[in-house]
Specification:
The complex is a heterodimer of chains A (117) and B (117). By secondary structure, chain A is mainly β. Helices cover 0% and strands 49% of the residues of chain A. Chain A is built from no helices and ten strands. In chain A, the strands form two sheets. In chain A, strands 1, 3, 4, 8, 9 and 10 form a six-stranded mixed β-sheet that branches. Chain A has a four-stranded antiparallel β-sheet with strand order 2-7-6-5, with no helix packed on it. With 117 residues, chain B is mostly beta strands. Chain B has no helices and eleven strands. In chain B, the strands form two sheets. In chain B, strands 2, 4, 5, 6, 9, 10 and 11 form a seven-stranded mixed β-sheet that branches. The termini of chain B are far apart. The chains are: A mainly beta (117), B mainly beta (117). The interface between A and B is medium-sized, with 33 and 33 residues.
């Protein structure tokens, strides 16, 4: 498939280990954050989101942590599987005047996760 | 089947020849957006639309136009394409009404690979 990950940060883990992917965001006004997974040759896939009034949110095998003080976001994947191998992006957004969370979305550079059997 | 479709999937064109990449969704979503993806730069938002006849610039709108005359369609128009618009383009749609965002309401299209010679 087409490579979109040249010079991206990489993380290699063994199957069954826990993975932590980090993201620094820049806009103090951002109040909504999303993690996406992108497999080779496919479009991004929503994983989990979190609003700025929360510090932590859990999904199925995934947890997102938000530290607004240092503008840092992390994605934790428990018991990582080979199918988790992909590029992971964080995205930030500011609520618009209408109150919905989706306005202008700004994506991070991405991190390549490789899971070895 | 709920989906976002993009056409064409692949396009090679020459500088200055106007082109349109279509995006259509069958889920009655309000929010639609266009992104470009380049190696090492992640996804960058070009334009987004909160609803019919409501569009706004993303991070990299220069050289692009969009329209939202009906809810299901959000075409991306390159009036005079240039080589620096060679990229992988993704359209996305999101349901923004009815409460907080959820994993069931975000969809990305399969991508359009554009080469401008």
């Amino acid at each position: 498939g087409e490579s979109v990950g040249l010079h991206l940060p990489t993380l290699s883990v063994q199957e069954g280990d826990n993975s932590i992917i980090n993201c620094a965001y820049s806009n103090s006004a951002s109040d909504y954050f999303i993690w996406y997974k992108q497999e080779s040759g496919k479009g991004p896939q929503f994983i989990i989101d979190i609003r700025s009034n929360m510090d932590k949110r859990q999904g199925q095998r995934v947890t997102v942590l938000l530290n607004k003080t240092v503008k840092h976001l992390s994605l934790q994947i428990a018991a990582t599987q080979p199918g988790d191998s992909a590029v992971y992006f964080c995205a930030e957004s500011s609520s618009n005047a209408g109150g919905t969370s989706y306005g202008k979305l700004t994506f991070g550079q991405g991190t390549i996760l490789t899971v070895h059997p | 089947e709920a989906q976002v479709t993009q056409n064409p999937r692949y396009l090679i064109t020459v500088t200055g020849k106007k082109l349109t990449v279509t995006c259509s969704q069958n889920m009655n979503h309000e929010y639609m957006s266009w992104y470009r993806q380049d190696p090492g730069l992640g996804l960058r938002q070009i334009y987004y639309s909160m609803n019919v006849e409501v569009t706004d610039k993303g991070d990299v709108p220069e050289g692009y136009k969009v329209s939202r005359k009906e809810k299901r369609n959000f075409p991306l128009i390159l009036e005079s394409p240039s080589p620096n618009q060679t990229s992988l383009y993704f359209c996305a749609s999101i349901m923004t009404s009815g409460g907080p965002p959820s994993t069931d309401t975000q969809y990305f299209g399969p991508g359009t690979r554009l080469t401008v010679l």
